[in-house]
Each structure stands twice: as C-alpha cells, then as structure tokens.
Amino acid sequence: MATPPMRVRGGPELVAALHRVSKKLASGPATIEVLKAGGRKVADEWARRVPIGEAPHDPHPGAYRRAMESPDSVYVDASDPAGTRVYVRPANLTDLDIRDQPRWYAGRLEFGDASRSPEPSARAAAESSKAEVIQIVSAGISRVVKTL
Amino acid sequence: MTLRQSLHDYLRDTVDVSVHEGKLPIRPVMPALVQHFVAASTVQTHSNRRSLIPRRVQLDVYGNNDKDVDATATKLLLALDGYHGPMGDTTIGWATMLTDMDFPPTEIKGGEVRFRRTLDFEVAYQERGKLVVPSSSS
Predict the structure, then answer these.
(1) Distance between CA atoms of residues B61 and B7, nearest Å
(2) Residue of B4, B18, B21, B23 to mutate for A, most A C-beta atoms under 10 A
C-alpha cells in the first residue's frame, strides 16, 4: 500500500520563531545578567588570589586587587553574531595614571619571566571556579528560557 | 615521590635539558626548562575515593635563540602531550597541552638575550599510596 502524501505547513514560520527565541536568549538583558554573574564569580576568585606587593617596591599596594574587585572587571560583548562573550580582566582604576594600571603588569605576575617566578592568580581562579560558574550559568539560562 | 619530582626527572631524561623549579638559576645552561605548578582542580566524590587529580602545569622553555627554543618545545610536546602510564612513582592518567605562548625576547644584564615559549599542560595524576579506597566493611 502506497504511503499517503504528507504536507508539512508552517516550516518557515517555525524556523523564524526559533531564530527569534535564539536571538533573544543569546543577547537579551536577562542572559547578559546571567553571564555577568558567572564572570563575577571568576573575578572575585581572581581578586582573592592576586599577589599584593609592598611599598616601596610596589608604589600602589592592593591596586591589582581593587582592579579585580571593580564591577568593570567583568565585561560582556554582545556585538558578535557568533555569540555573547564575557571577559574578565583587571579594570582601569580612575585614581591611577595609565602607566600604573594593573593590566600592564598582570601578565608578568601571571607567567613570570627569566628572573621572577610566576604568581598565577587568573588561571588558578579560572580552574577553581569552573564548576561553580557552569552551575551559575546553566541555572540562570534555565530560568531565562522559562520566561521566553 | 611526588608529581613534581617525577615530572622533573622524566623531562630531564627525555627532553634532555636542565629542568628548574620556579625560575631560572643565575647562570643556566641553555636551553632550559622551568616547571611551575599552577592549580589543581578539586576532586570530590561521595565515597571519598580520590582518583586522578587534574593539575595545570606551566612549562617555560628558555634558550639563547628562537631555533633552540622551538626545537626544545617540540621535544617537550612529543614527550608529554598524550602521555599516560607510570612516570617514576606517579601514575599519569593523561597529559594534554592547553596553551602555547611565545614571549618577546628579553635582554638581561650584560646584553644577553633570552628567548622563551610557555606551554601549559593539564596533567591528571595519582601519587602511589595516596589513593583512599573505602574498606569493604564500611
């Protein structure tokens, strides 16, 4: 017996609707807040682990930690169509000259050099907070999906 | 023997360079490797049975020119990336390269120039005698 022909309707509408949901989920304000919360977890752990110098060797003791504690240390870029990204890095401190910003020396502390042992804080923070960040983001995204 | 010691001895013998802990000595023989332990992931299980511990290890390759550094980095990759099995008194579950970075050459005192590449590996290991196995009565 021949299979009766089937017509599927609404395919293009379904694809368009899924695109709308996907776009809303990828760069909507609620998703951005979830990603920021995940990034904040890494930034806080990083701040806890940064090495603190002492004067006079370090002219601004604690600046690196303040740069990581700043809300600006977590930055979300939703402009890339490939996906929204969250960056965690030392923020600029308004009370310091551009040459004294921790982002200039954070790499040297992290990886060391020929005469100085590394004092890793970024990679150690990422490793130790990984599981918790995944939990924060997956729970947050689940909440966002339910509101769509 | 700890992972630190096992890895040190293995790299010294297979890559055939001097291996240092933390930083280079004042007058190192080049090319040279510097190993540094960055972080270990937390392993928790309900039965308190610890299996392999993944640890991030930073390995710096130093040399007097970029050719030496690249050749040593290649030997290091061949020796460690994909390694599994016994290493000294330590058992390696896996060793995988995570990142590979080139640094600009730096001039040190006396006009000498040092070249450097930094490779990060994840090494999952188990030190013998450290495995906690719950007894059958518990």
Answers:
(1) 15
(2) B23
- What is the span of the domain harbouring residue A40? 27-147
Q: What is the ipTM of this complex?
A: 0.76
In the numeric block, which tokens belong to residue B99?
């990142």
Please report where in the chains the tokens 């392999």 appear, as a residue.
B52
Domains of chain A: total: 1
What pTM does this model have? 0.79
Interface size A-B, in CB pairs within 8 Å, comes to: 49
pLDDT digit string (tens) for chain A, length 148 residues:
677 888 888 888 999 888 877 777 777 888 889 999 999 999 999 999 998 877 667 778 889 999 999 999 999 988 887 778 899 999 999 999 988 899 998 998 999 887 788 999 999 999 889 889 999 999 998 888 888 7
Residue A133 forms part of a structural domain:
yes
Question: Chain A interface, mutation test: which of B43, B58, B96, most A Cβ atoms within 10 Å?
Answer: B58
b vs e for B6-20, b when ≥16 Cβ sit within 10 Å of the residue's Cβ? bbbebbeeebebbbb
- What residue spans define the domains of chain B? 3-127
A99 occurs within a structural domain: yes
Spatial contact of A63 and A102, defined as CB atoms under 8 Å apart: yes
| Within-domain flag for A141 | yes
CATH superfamily for B3-127 is: Phage tail protein-like (3.30.2000.10)
